[in-house]
Amino acid sequence: MKHILITTLAAVVLVGCGESQQSPPAPEVKLVEPVAEAAKPPTGKTPDTSIHTAARQGKIEAIKQHLTDGVGVNAKSEMGRTTLHSAAREGHKEVIELLIAKGADVNVNDKDGTTPLDMADDKETANLLRKDGGRIES
Length: 138
Prior knowledge:
Serine Threonine Protein Phosphatase 5, Tetratricopeptide repeat, 8 helices, 138 residues, mainly alpha
């Protein structure tokens, strides 16, 4: 009797107790781009440098490309500075004119409360910012 019981248990363990209770395979998931990104076709080669670095270096074509690709004209760096802060600091007048024409806030404050006019490198740059309403930190 003991022999039959052991044989039966061994058979159940080896063969199983019936149909498997596994879940059906999960449906295939396709990853898609976010709607905002998918709706915006690439317009050209994205510059190798950030918009802030491009402003600091006076690379107006790279800035134009970033703006075309949807980067905000008032995008802030970790220090809270905008591209206008960087361009003003380095005295890049063409870049300043472009950014203002695209809607840059001439009185935006960084984390220290500094405006682009506070950062103006020279008198001509300061006058350009003042002409468009730029003020010094109050």
